[in-house]
Each structure stands twice: as C-alpha cells, then as structure tokens.
Specification:
The complex is a heterodimer of chains A (about 280) and B (about 900).
Chain A lengths: L1 H15 L3 E4 L10 E7 L5 E7 L17 E6 L3 E6 L6 E4 L9 E7 L6 E6 L6 E11 L2 E10 L9 E9 L9 E7 L6 E4 L6 E4 L5 E7 L10 E8 L1 H16 L18 E11 L3
Parallel strand pairs in A: 2-17
Antiparallel strand pairs in A: 2-3, 3-6, 4-5, 4-7, 7-8, 9-10, 10-15, 11-14, 11-16, 12-13, 12-15, 16-17
Chain B lengths: L4 H34 L9 E3 L4 E2 L2 H12 L2 E3 L12 E2 L4 E3 H10 L4 E4 L3 E5 L6 E10 L10 E4 L4 E4 L5 E7 L1 E8 L6 E7 L3 E2 L2 E3 L23 E4 L3 H6 L9 H5 L5 E3 L7 E3 L7 E5 L2 E2 L4 E2 L4 E2 L6 E9 L11 E7 L8 E7 L2 E11 L3 E10 L1 H9 L4 E17 L4 E19 L4 E4 L3 E27 L4 E24 L2 E24 L6 E25 L5 E3 L6 E15 L3 E13 L6 E15 L2 E11 L2 E4 L10 E4 L8 E14 L2 E18 L17 E17 L4 E16 L8 E2 L6 E12 L2 E10 L3 E2 L5 E3 L13 E3 L7 E2 L3 E12 L5 E9 L9 E8 L5 E10 L5 E9 L1
Parallel strand pairs in B: 3-7, 8-14, 8-15, 19-24
Antiparallel strand pairs in B: 1-5, 2-4, 6-7, 8-11, 9-10, 9-12, 12-13, 16-23, 17-18, 19-20, 21-22, 23-24, 25-26, 25-57, 26-27, 27-28, 28-29, 29-31, 30-31, 31-32, 32-33, 33-34, 34-35, 34-36, 36-37, 37-38, 38-39, 39-42, 40-41, 42-43, 43-44, 44-45, 45-46, 45-47, 47-48, 48-53, 49-52, 50-51, 53-54, 54-57, ...
Classes of the chains: A mainly beta (about 280), B mainly beta (about 900).
C-alpha cells in the first residue's frame, strides 16, 4: 500500500515538476564580425586567418571577407608586410619574416568604410625544459606512457610565465586529448592541481619557481600511429586567457545556463586572437 | 551673605509652587475621603462617557460636565490651568474617559494623577524626569517583540523596542498613561506613577487570528529610525502565503513587494533596486550569512519556524548598517518559550520541518531548535536504485538558540545555524569497460562518485547589558563560514588491484568577528537615542583549491597539500543619532569602514547617512533618505547565473571598493484606518563597479590571475514603487507596482556604453489578496507580472582556432560574444491560489494548507538557448532558439502542520 502511495506521489511529481521546452519568441538580429587569427613564432613563417562570422541559422564554415580587404603585419613597429585578400581567400601566409623572440607584432585588417580590425602581441622565446623522464607501464595487457617534466623559470624573470604542455601523436601530429596532468609548484604555498580537461595542460610559473609536471597518457601506445611526442609552449598572457576560455566554453557549451559565448579575444573591433608563441618539442 | 534680586525672585516662585502643591495635596486628601464616603466603587477610566456634542464656552464648563457624567472628581487650580476659561469644542459625543482627559489636559501640557475616584491636575515638572525601561514580550512564551511601540498617551512621546525587545523612555515625573502596541497583538494600556527610574517589562497578548495582518491605529508614530523603504512581513503571514511546493519562505515572500526582484522562478538570487545579489547583506542575529539560499536561490536557507522577525531595508540606511551596497535583510531568530514546552511540525511535498522550544530553567533560560530536510533524494533513490547511474539531491538546515536571563540587566544568547545542499552523482560501472575512440578501451572503471556540497555555518555568543535604563549594550562574538566542495573519487581496477584517485576541490571563506553596539537614551527631549558601535572581522578566503590523493596500483601515493588562506581584516564603526522634534524626526549618522590589505595600503570609507521624516498630520508622512554605502567583498560568478561555486573575493590594489550613493523619497498616506498607500522614488549612482569581460564566467581554479579578467565601470539606477496595502477586514492584501531602470557601463564592454543590468525588469506588479472566510479559514491568491529580464545571447557564430595546425581549426564553432544584455526575455506572469484551514482540536493547533502554483500553466522563460538540430546521420545542420520553462504546468501543493 505504502509503495503504491509512493508510486502515485512520484508519478505526480514527475508529471508536474517537468520542465518544458518551447520555441523562443525573440527577434534575433544576426551580427557579422571580422574574425582574425594569427599564431606567430620566432624564425617561422606566419599564417594570418581572416574571415567573417556566420549566423546560427545559416551554413557553417569560414565566410570570406571579400575583395578589397587589406591585411597587414607590423613587426617591432617598423617592418611592415601587407597584402590584399582575393575572392574566397580566408588565410594569407607571410614568409621570409624577420621575427625574433621578444619582437612585437601587430596584425590588422582594413576595409573601406569600416573600422580597422587589429590586435597586438609579442613573440616569446622557447620555453626552458631542463629535464624529462619517461617510462611505460602495462594495464590490461596494453602499454601506456607517462612522463615527468621539469620546467625552469628564466633567470631573473619576475613576471608570470604562461605555459601549455600537450602530447601529440608523432606520426599524425594530432593532439592526444585523453591525458591527465598532475602539476606541483614548489613554492611556499604548495598547491597541486589535477586536471583531466582535454584543452588544459595550462600552467602559470610565477617568476621564482621551478615546476614539476606529470603527464599520464590514457591512450595506449598501440592506439597511436607513431608514439608520443610532447610539446611545451610558452604562451603570451592573451594566448593563455584564450585557451582558458576555450576550455570553459567547451565544458559549458551543453549547459545553456552557463552561457554560450565568451571566448577571450584581444582583437580590437573584431574577434579572434593574434599572439606570439614559443615551442619546444621535448622528445618521445 | 547677600541675596540678589534674581535669587529673591526664584525663592518667591519656589514658595508659590510649594504652596500650590500643598493645596493640591490637601484637596487630594479631602477628595479621597469624600469619594470613599460617597461611593466605594472606582471609576472605570476605559468606560464610555457620553457628553453633549457642543461648544463649551470654557474648559471649566466641560470639566464640570465630565465630572457630572462620569462621577469622577477633577481637582485643579486656575494656576495649573491658566486658560481654563478658554472655549473648547467637542467633535464627538461618545468618548473613552481616558481619551477625553487626554484631550482636555493634553492641550495645556499639564500632568494629571489618576486615583480610583479622582483626577488631580498638577503643573508639569520638566525638571524631574525619570526613565522607564524594560522588555516588550509576548505573554506566555516571553518571546521578545521587536519594533513594538510604547508611548505616553498624554505627551505623545514614545519609543520603539530594539532588536532585543528593549525600550527606554524618559518622561516627566507623575502619572504616565502608557500604551503598548504591536502588530498582531492586543494593545495594552496602563498607568505608571513615575517617581523614580523604573524597570517595566510588558507582556502583550497575541491575537488569535489566522493571519496577523491587523494593525492598531495609534496616535503615536514611532520614530523612523529603521530606514526608508522598509519591508517587514509578519512571519505568520509568510507562513500563510501560497507558494511553490507549499514551502514557507521569507525571502520569496519579500520578493512579492515592490523593488525586490529575483531570477526566473526564483532562481538566481535577490536583487534590490537594481543591485546585484552580492550587494545584499543577510544577517542572521547580527551575523552575516553568505549563502542565504537553498537550491540555487529557489528557497531561503533558514526555516521560517525559527524566525522572530525579518526586515529588509532598501534605502535611507541607518549608520549601524554597512558592508553592502544595496540592501540589509535583518533576520532575528526566536528565543524560545520561557514558560512552557512547545513544538511544531509540518509535512509538505518537498520537505518536513520540526521545531521545539521550552524552558530549561523557568523564566530564566530557554532553548529553541528547528530543523528542516527535503526528501527529493528519497524519490530519486527509489527510481534509480536499479540503475548504474544514480543522482540524488537534498538540503537541510538546523538552527538553535539558547537564551539565558542572568538578571534584569543582563542576557546571554548562544546561537547556531547550519544549512547545507548536497548533490551526488554516482556512476557505478559494474566492471564494464569504457570504450574510448576507435578500437581500444580504457581501464576498467569500477566506480566514479561525485559529491557536491555547499552551505553555511554560523555560531555566535551575545551578551546584552542594560546599565541604568538609559544605556543598553550588545556584544557579539561570532563565526560565519561558507564552503563549496566537490569531491570526486574514481576507482579503477588495475591488475586486479584498485587504484583510487581522489580529488577534492573547495572554495569559501571563514569570518571571525567581534562586535559591540551601545545605545544611549538621553533625557534630552529632542534626542531619542544615540548609538555607537565597533566591529572587527578577520576574513579567511579560500578562492578555490584542489587537494589530490592518488593511491596507485603500484603502491605509490601521490598526495598534495592545501594552500594557506588569504587573510584580510575588515573593521567598521558608526555613530548614529535619532532626533525627534514635533513634526520632524531625523536619523543622522556616519559609518566608517576600513579594509586592511597585507603589505598594501588600507582602504578607508566614510559613509554619511541621513533620514528625515516629516509628519504634517497623523495620516501622512514624508521621508527623505540619503546614504552612501560601499563594500569590500564581492562575489565572482563562474556562470551567467549564480551558482554555489561562485566565490567571495576581497578588494585589492587592482580592484578598489565599489561605492553607491542613494537618495530616496517615500510618501505614506493612511487613506483609512486599515488602508495605506506608500509611494517611493529613488536614484542610485554607483562608482568603481567590476565585472568580467566575458559572460561565460571564469575558471578561477585554474586562473590565479583572475583580476586581469575584470573590467571597471560605473552605473546608475532609478525607479518608482507604489504599494496599496489593506490590513484587517474580510479581504486584505496588497497591490504593488514598481518601475525600475538600472544601467551599467564597463570598459571594453558594449563599446563602453551603458547597458541594462541583469535584473533590469522595468515593470513588476503583484496582487496579493486574502479572503477570510471564517476566523479559521482563509483563501488567498497571488498574481505576479513582470516584463522580461535582459538577456545576452549570441547572435552569430564563427570557426575558432587554438593553433595553426590543430584539428580544431576549421571545424568547431564558437558563439560570437553577443552584445551584453542586448535582448530581453518574454514577459512573465503567474497565479497561485492557496487555502489555509486551522483546527484547534484535538490537542494543539492543526493546520492544513493546500493550493495550486502557476494555476493557468504559464510557460515562463527560465533561460533561452540555441538548440542544435541534427540530421538523421547525427550531423548538426542548424540551430533553433528555444526557451526552457521550469514549471510549465499547474503544480499543486499540500502541507499539514501541527503545533502544540
């Protein structure tokens, strides 16, 4: 009898405490914005990506900015490289550049009768990884890899340093996303962070510390085509913020209540990211 | 020894007074014996007297008529009543004898002493003034009455009991006709022969109405020292209001009055006059409570059964309050019955409550304990116990208080509150392998358990002391804590050994506080009270830490230690005075606050406060308020709505304390004895506000540099509120309307232009009506309407990249950061009906409450989002804008309560 009453109450609750999804009666006016991306490395060529945003109800993809769009790159305030986009072009490669670690860069887009879209950054040096340890272990008949990395702070560096550690499939270059990080900072505050988020691997070095990181690859070695290759990146502050916001965006994209927008951007009058980056491949 | 002319004059006057007093006493003695001879019956001063309604050529003639009609003898001399020959007119023929005496003698400002058969009129002696002080309490339970009035009916001078039920009133010596009154209680009249400082504790009798909506109309208007725009709903009325799932809820009830808003269906905290929810301070027995809500804002964290009073101040803040910019919600817990053991319990669809109170030492020490727990986890456990994945949610709160009367002058209180929400996910994989990608599997996961817990704890020790009837002090030592904790435990089977990985994340803060307030009630006629106070609080912030422990299958243990908290010292001080003139009263004060930052300079804030009340007539009052408020803590959101994971963080060198100036005006008119119209207007100007550049919040755990993600700005808000309130009668209730506009501007957001704040609902209306069918049955209806809240929603998307050559490039779409609050949600409205039936038998009081929430099934928007539409092959082909409504259907409730 009691069970029947509970059943009835439960049915009542479930029937009534059920949310309802209906079409929203809000007139959304789609907005077009210029998207600008550039990841600039010392001594390397530079690819600048420039295109338009699209509406939610339209087709996906990169929509070209169109003829007459002038794209420029300024290095250290003086050396200027520029070009004009053609037709459906959405990216431009600048090579033969004289970009060194510490150089300042500015990338911009000029279109007739519109505000200039531009962003500035600096190009950091390669990170200083001074030690790498690795071993393989077996689980359920499969071999896995794990690594211990020691990262040194630049001597005399007082500002925060921003880093990202990622693992790639050596053969394909694809980022291995199922990794776990254990990060320990040897400083007076003694904190640890374990992160399993696929877009993380982001670390801050506060100027006086040496850092130990532990990366545990959850993908068995025989699931990869060419073994594991680690890459340590020194990030700019804006790149770090951007990657943080990407992680947040991906984590919350299925929960509308947490918002569906908000990637960090340093692009004035537009969206995207122009940043320098220093990379070091640290072995297999 | 030489005597001056002036001294001769004084001596002569004094002799005349002595002669006069001698004559009076002689008359008194003669009259008494005459009365005793004539008639042993005493005069009933509360009885009715019927007099001809006419013009009396002299006051003497009226006095003779009174003597004739009532049988009382009135002894006076023309020295005392020099204007007794003046004409007087009576507008009514039927009078209470006491009221009539007040009318006749009150105009001459003389004293009169009441004897069984005689009234002796004496000159006022303003030089001899004595203090009457004590506590106003409920008869029986001896629960203190906060905000009750006590006043001298002759001089129309009075006082209001403070938050401890204490009052102090200094009056000229003589017979003082006192009247004590409080909403929902029988008015009490008494005469006090005031010849020395007197302690007078008064017990008022509770009216036996189902609802406490009746108020007495008194000639005395208490000084408006509580602020302008004050919302105070009697707890009995809160319990009787229809509500979601039948839960009695103080904050939800207040949200039905003008100027107070909340998110959709109650989610998202409380906004007062356009301010954010972290700009409201909620104080439980004078201790700040950082998380006053359960279930992300749906219910208030404290149990209405244990609450004595709840007052929310929206403007004209007295100087005693500080630390937040928008409002003060002052909750006072009950103290427990001093005479009899009592209990209360109720059973509802969502939760059950119990409350017990009683004496430990009769008339000396009492206790009260109340507790509440929901049982949604029992429902969910019932349906999910055969599944691999289980979810459960419940919340509970417990409050208790010990009250010890050490002496007539000393009281001690110990109180404790704890409220907690608990959400558990338990994934039991039962030896199943988790497929990962193509062709291979992860480890065998045995169990993955996620626990989320958040809640507050408050404990305090308070000591009240009355020094001499004119000086009252309250000293409180308190502890307040808020924690959000997420514990994740993964158990994997590795080579037939369990590998346990535990990660615990927590954030929150601890407050250790010492506070003392003193109120001085001077003998000076124009100054009702002077208050001073000091408070020191040590904050320990925990802005998101993770502790990790892994017991690896190979025997290794990786363990991490927690980080030290961030400590800051906050101090407050104030000076406040209540000035009471004939038609004008003023509450003037200044509040100081200091925030000490480690190794950096401190912030000092000086906040002037002023509230002036002009009362040209009994039925009309005008209040003008001006205040400056600031705050040193702010809540950082991790999402677009409030969540328990939001963190309280201190100001810093990059984030100076925000500040608001508010000016308000309130006009209150009593249209009839039980109908009141209140109209208010306000303007607020904010400076140094902060917000995140993005609307998706920030992961503070991972980002130690969160200050750089904030931008500074300013804002303003203005609005008008109106409320027509009817108390008593067969139909009672209110109609409330508010217009409000609140705008912010921040660097780098919306091109530095002003935009509506999250709570900018322009028009809100509430109609609440109670129909009393019989003394024990009432029907109620509550209808609410509000225009749509501002909405930020992406109005475009784009291909985003994380590197030149990762697979993200070119395929995955991100939302355009839409202009902040560019759109608006659809308007919301709903109707709730309720019925309360009270039975007095058998043993105790039984009440059955039932009703229907959202009667006509209005689909009010809770949030708006783009929903991906997929093709049959699973590819996203388009998006559609959707609205989610939490309670889209009529939802009944039923609750049974029992009180003994």
């Amino acid at each position: 009898m009691i069970k029947k009453i509970w059943n009835y109450m439960l049915l009542l609750m479930l029937t009534l405490v059920t949310g309802c999804e209906i079409d929203a009666d809000i007139d959304i006016k789609p907005e077009r914005k210029v998207i600008l991306y550039a990841f600039v490395e010392a001594g390397n060529e530079c690819v600048v990506h420039a295109y338009q945003s699209i509406s939610y109800t339209g087709a996906a993809g990169k929509m070209p900015l169109g003829e007459g769009t002038r794209l420029y790159l300024i290095v250290d305030g003086t050396d200027m490289y520029n070009t004009t986009l053609r037709g459906t072009e959405v990216s431009v490669k600048f090579d033969s550049l004289d970009i060194n670690a510490g150089s300042s860069i500015e990338v911009g887009i000029e279109r007739e009768n519109e505000l200039t879209v531009h962003a500035k950054s600096i190009v950091p040096a390669e990170p200083s990884v001074f030690s790498l340890g690795s071993d393989e272990f077996e689980r359920n008949g499969k071999q896995y890899a794990r690594y211990t990395i020691y990262l040194a702070n630049e001597q005399g560096e007082k500002e925060n340093g921003y880093y990202q550690l990622i693992a790639r499939d050596k053969a394909t270059g694809e980022v291995i996303e199922d990794v776990e990080y254990l990060d320990r900072v040897f400083d007076e505050s003694m904190t640890s962070v374990l992160s399993t988020d696929k877009s993380r691997g982001l670390f801050v070095l506060n100027g006086q510390t040496t850092r130990f990181m532990y990366l545990h690859c959850n993908v068995p070695l025989d699931g990869l085509k060419g073994g594991v290759e680690l890459e340590m990146r020194r990030l700019t502050y804006e790149y770090y913020c951007y990657l943080q916001s990407v992680a947040t965006h991906e984590a919350y994209m299925l929960l509308p209540v947490f918002g569906q927008n908000g990637l960090y951007t340093n692009v004035v009058n537009g969206i995207g990211l122009v940043t320098g980056v220093g990379r070091q491949v640290i072995g297999d | 020894m030489q005597i001056t002319h002036q001294e001769y004059s004084d001596l002569f006057k004094r002799c005349l007074w002595y002669l006069f007093l001698f004559l009076c006493l002689s008359l008194y003695g003669t009259g008494s014996s005459a009365a005793n001879v004539a008639d042993n019956d005493t005069i009933q001063y509360s009885a009715w007297v019927v007099l001809p309604r006419t013009d009396y050529p002299t006051t003497d003639s009226l006095i003779h008529t009174i003597e004739k009609e009532s049988g009382v003898t009135i002894s006076y001399s023309t020295r005392v009543l020099p204007f007794a020959s003046r004409a007087i007119k009576l507008k009514h023929s039927r009078w209470h004898l006491m009221d009539l005496l007040n009318k006749v003698f009150g105009r001459y400002k003389v004293q009169y002493h009441i004897e069984p058969k005689r009234v002796i009129v004496t000159p006022p002696d303003e030089n001899k003034r004595y203090t009457i002080s004590g506590f106003l309490k409920e008869e029986g339970s001896r629960e203190v009455l906060i905000g009750a009035n006590i006043y001298d009916m002759l001089l129309l001078r009075g006082a209001v009991s403070n938050e401890f039920g204490y009052y102090s009133l200094t009056l000229p010596a003589g017979n003082v006709p006192l009247k004590a009154s409080f909403v929902g209680y029988e008015t009490m009249e008494m005469n006090v022969d005031l010849r020395s400082d007197t302690i007078l504790n008064i017990d008022l009798v509770r009216k036996e109405n189902l609802l406490e909506m009746e108020i007495d109309v008194v000639n005395f208007e208490p000084p408006a020292d509580a602020g302008a725009g004050v919302v105070s709903i009697p707890i009995q009325q809160v319990k009787a209001m229809p509500s979601l799932m039948g839960e009695s809820d103080i904050i939800r009830a207040m949200q039905h009055t003008p100027g107070i808003q909340c998110g959709e269906e109650g989610f998202g905290g409380m906004s007062v006059r356009g301010g954010n929810s972290d700009q409201n301070i909620v104080m439980l027995d004078n201790v700040p409570l950082y998380n006053p809500m359960h279930l992300m804002g749906l219910y208030t964290a404290f149990n209405a059964e244990g609450v004595n009073s709840a007052t929310l101040i929206k403007g004209g803040f007295p100087a005693r309050y500080g630390g937040r910019m928008s409002s003060v919600l002052d909750i006072k817990m009950r103290e427990g019955d001093m005479q009899k053991f009592r209990g209360y319990m109720n059973v509802g669809l969502l939760s059950s409550n119990v409350m017990f109170e009683g004496p430990i030492i009769e008339e000396k020490m009492s206790f009260i304990v109340s507790a509440r727990r929901t049982y949604a986890d029992i429902y969910s456990g019932y349906i999910q116990n055969k599944r691999d994945t289980r979810y459960s949610f419940y919340f509970y709160d417990i409050s208790s208080k010990l009250n010890y009367i050490i002496s007539n002058r000393d009281r001690l209180y110990v109180s404790y509150f704890m409220g907690s929400d608990n959400l558990n996910n338990d994934y039991n994989f039962r030896d199943k392998q988790i497929k990962y990608g193509e062709g291979y599997y992860r480890d065998i996961m045995v169990n993955d358990e996620n626990q989320y817990r958040w809640g507050s704890i408050i404990s305090s020790l308070r000591w009240n002391h009355s020094y001499n009837g004119k000086l009252f002090s309250n000293t409180t030592a308190s502890f307040s804590r808020y924690r959000f904790r997420n514990r994740e435990e993964k158990v994997s089977d590795v080579k037939s050994k369990n590998e346990v990985s535990t990660s615990t994340y927590f954030s929150g803060l601890n407050d250790y506080s010492l506070k003392t307030d003193a109120t001085y009630y001077p003998s000076v006629v124009d100054i009702a009270s002077v208050r001073v106070g000091l408070e020191g609080t040590l904050h320990a912030f925990y802005p998101g830490y993770t502790m990790v422990k892994s017991d690896m299958s190979d025997g290794d243990t990786i363990k991490a230690e927690k980080r030290h908290p961030l400590k800051r010292l906050e101090a407050h001080g104030y000076l406040e005075s209540q000035i009471q003139l004939k038609k004008v009263s003023a509450n003037v004060g200044v509040h100081f606050s200091l925030f000490n930052r480690k190794n950096e300079s401190s912030y000092l804030q000086v906040e002037p406060r002023l509230l002036v009340t002009y009362k040209p007539m009994n039925s009309l009052s005008v209040k003008l308020g001006g205040s400056c408020m600031s705050q040193f803590l702010q809540q950082m959101h991790v999402a677009t709505v409030e969540t328990p994971a939001d963190m309280w963080l201190p100001v810093s060198s990059k984030l100076p304390p925000p500040r608001v100036w508010q000016a308000s005006v309130e006009v209150e008119a009593k249209l009839t004895d039980n109908v009141k119209l209140t109209v208010e207007g306000y303007r607020k100007n904010y400076v140094r506000l902060q917000t995140y550049k993005t609307t998706s919040g920030v992961d503070l755990l991972a980002d130690g540099d969160w200050e750089n993600l904030l931008v500074k700005g300013d804002g303003w808000a203005n609005g008008a509120e109106a409320m027509l309130h009817k108390t008593g009668g067969t139909i009672s209730g209110w109609v409330g309307y508010s217009y409000s506009k609140s705008m912010n501007r921040f660097d780098e957001i919306n091109n530095n232009k002003y935009y509506p704040t999250d709570y900018d609902k322009r028009h809100c209306t509430t109609i609440y009506a109670v129909y009393t069918v019989k003394s024990n049955i009432d029907l109620s209806a509550l209808w609410t309407y509000s225009t749509g809240a501002p909405l930020t929603i992406p109005d475009g998307q784009y291909v985003f990249m994380t590197d030149n050559d990762t697979k993200h490039s070119g395929t995955i779409l991100a939302s355009l950061p839409g202009e902040r609050n560019k759109y608006r949600m659809p308007n919301s409205h709903s109707l709730t009906l309720g019925c309360n039936i009270k039975f007095d038998k058998p043993k105790g009081e039984h009440m059955l409450s039932f009703g229907l929430y959202n009667v006509y099934g209005q689909k009010n928007p809770m949030f708006i989002y783009w929903k991906p539409l997929e093709s049959t092959s699973g590819e996203r082909v388009a998006y559609q804008l959707k609205q989610f409504s939490l309670i889209a259907f009529p939802m009944p409730y039923v609750k049974y309560s029992y009180k003994f």
